[in-house]
Amino acid sequence: MTQPVILALTAGEPAGIGPELCLQLALKKRGPGIVVVASKPLLEARARLLGLEVALEDWAPGAPATAEPGRLSVLSVDGLASTTAGHLDPANSAYVLETLRIAAQGCLDGIFDGMVTAPVHKGVINNAGIAFSGHTEFLQELCGVERVVMMLATDELRVALVTTHLPLKDVSAAITAERLTQVTRILDNDLRKFFGLQHPRILVAGLNPHAGEGGHLGREEIDVIEPTLATLRREGIDLTGPLPADTLFTPHWLDNADAVLAMYHDQGLPVLKFQGFGRAVNITLGLPIVRTSVDHGTALDLAGTGKADAGSLETAIRVGERMATSAKRDPIE
Fold this sequence. Notes:
Elements: E1 6-10, H1 18-26, E2 33-38, H2 40-50, E3 55-58, E4 71-76, H3 93-108, E5 114-117, H4 122-127, H5 135-143, E6 149-153, E7 158-161, H6 168-174, H7 177-195, E8 201-205, H8 220-234, E9 238-243, H9 245-248, H10 251-254, E10 259-262, H11 265-276, E11 281-285, E12 291-294, H12 311-329
Parallel strand pairs: 1-2, 1-5, 2-4, 3-4, 5-12, 7-10, 8-9, 8-10
Antiparallel strand pairs: 6-7, 6-11, 11-12
Helix pairs in contact: 1-2, 3-5, 7-8
């Protein structure tokens, strides 16, 4: 019999909305057991500020995690310098990264079945003198994997990216046969493993307008993308494309697809965020662990007001639970 899923939830930037999203979550009925990896005094302070009655219960590995409304299991992390909502403090940066390390290592050690992350503030961490480009890269290094893939998803649409945070002028050179091969294999493998899809159907966007229009609007499709997709199809991966991005995101194509592979960040994500902002989830593929996250930032202006919407966090937890359950059925190699 499959054991109940336990997910680690990191509360993110202490000055942002992450802590109160965790507290909001505690007030609702939820499926999996959740362990918040954060400073317990921080959660207590934010609960007092918002007038929320939440019982914060100390949690230790091996214990069950509560899913009951009004209660929250907490794995408390020391090192927090300040707890003021809306005011960034670089002195909190090492603490923030420690919460991520503890949650990720817990997943690697089998203590947790997956991790869900509330938003961090990359700028303040770098201002503290710590080189940090984001959750994804931090977890990639900690888990020791060569390549990870960013995928955002709603209940209706999944969009993965070949390249992520690059200036547009650098995208073409970054789309190599090697990168496209690695990303596509990871996407296909993880759709099978974490989403239970036996034969994922993937739509691939071209890079150029009209997918290059036979070379008249660019040769990346002819020289790199098409030959690479042909090789991957011979491996048994179901790929359609490269397709013009301006018509790919229409029911004609999407109704018969499980995911879209976009060539760059602003090719695929504006469509997805327009379709489901506030209820989308950011998923890191290619890791030996389950990791999902919210689709928004720290929202410092909303911190401490009680106006933050936990919809995206609830989606991230729901998707994380599904992925972890699927991984339990099909253990990660």
